[in-house]
Amino acid sequence: MQAKTGICLLQDGSQEPFKVRLHLAKDILTIQEQDVICVSGEPFYSGERTVAIRRQTVGGFGLSIKGGSEHNIPVVISKISKEQRVKVICLLQINGINVRKCKHEEVVQVLRNAGEEVTLTVSFLKRAPAFLKLLLNEDCACVPSDQSSGTSSPLCDSGLHLNYHPNNTDSLSCSSWPASPGVRWEKRWCDLRLIPLLHSRLSQYVAGTDLCRQNSFQITAVDGVGSGIIQCLSPEDCIEWLQCISTNVSNLTKHNIKKINRNFPVNQQIVHMGWAEEREQDTLQGHAYTPKFLALRGSSLYKFNSPPVTTWDWMRAEKKFTVYEIMSKIFKDSELLDRRKNCFGVQSETGDDLYFSVELESELLQWERAFQMATFLEVERIQCKTYACVIESHLMGLTIDFGMGFICFDAATKAILWRYKFSQLKGSSDDGKSKIKFLFQNQDTKQIEAKELEFSNLFAVLHCIHSFFAAKVACLDPLFVDSQGAASAAVTSASCTTTGVCKIKYTT
Predict the structure, then answer these.
(1) Cα gap 134→82, rounded to integer Å
(2) The pTM is what?
(3) For the domain 383-506, what is the CATH code?
């Protein structure tokens, strides 16, 4: 578990970045802002309340606002009607939109577009602070900004530069607050946002693009709540935060997998799961990426739009691929399609290519090991796979057997036509459509014997053969078997050309 605390800047929406403190714990990231709170005595403001008002045919909402971040004071409702002044009401949210740090005109625009009914989150002041009394009781000769909503212009520049609201406390002076016996105020770090880390999603990239923010990142919780753009002091500091958060997310994921696997039989266990960004193959918006939640479980690779929570969720996957009939590949820097790094691909049994990006190299290595492990476990479990094929217009069957190798037989009589061990395969080629030519070495004559077969699902067969080779190598590696780690790919090679032709070679 990684624990870390540090100061960063937070940009949330259109407002200017402001200082926050991040605190990383085992299962949660806390974002804190500085607040001035009453630590003794009776504070002069009450707690937050939510009220709903409806726009009238004449007079709009019937309220007036003053203040704004450009005046370093909060946005306040100064009047409810022309006839009645009210105690000061600080305006915090409009229809759930945080306006604490908004400029006056920005609040006007939000109110103008709020619809016929608006929900306001406000804080009532029990008595007006001394530094606000003059501003709120003095009517400036200003023209209303929005006749339809009844809002008024910003406060005229009085030369006062006060920071009342705790969100703007950098230059706050305690003398700015009203003096009251027994009341004591302190500047403290208070929780602004809590981001649960389980299934949360990290990204340095501008959403949907390959444009990387060098010093910044954002984190999105499983329920879609985002942190905003967190700006670090340097690229190194940013990477350190990403690595620490990623480590905790990974640890939580592993623990969660153990809990979930208790409810699944051995052949349906989860090997690995997590977020990746999928690159759209055809898009009119440039290099568009969409977050997808991937899971390697039992015999399948699942692709979701959101993490599966219930057993029923597993049945609603967007896509599902058979592990031993797909081929995964880690892309080198020279093979990347754009500016995103840490990418891997998955070629499906239909020959379609899926392209994914993750944030860190450590995540990429996790997926590489997970694909190798899932393939090994599934091949070891099924032991053999048979595909229908055609040889010179005759219906045949090709069995790929984990122990015996390749077996070709007549579909009608079951008579074996030929048999070769995995080590006898010296090469192969295909036409990218349906035909495969195998080159086997005869053990007695040492001559190369060519066998050509035609399949209805070419890529599924090719990927299955590759999976059996990889599993065969893995089971001979004591380190892999003992540690359940990654299978070595050094003794197998597979290359897919741009025309879709796949070549497989086994070396001893």
Answers:
(1) 18
(2) 0.71
(3) 2.30.29.30
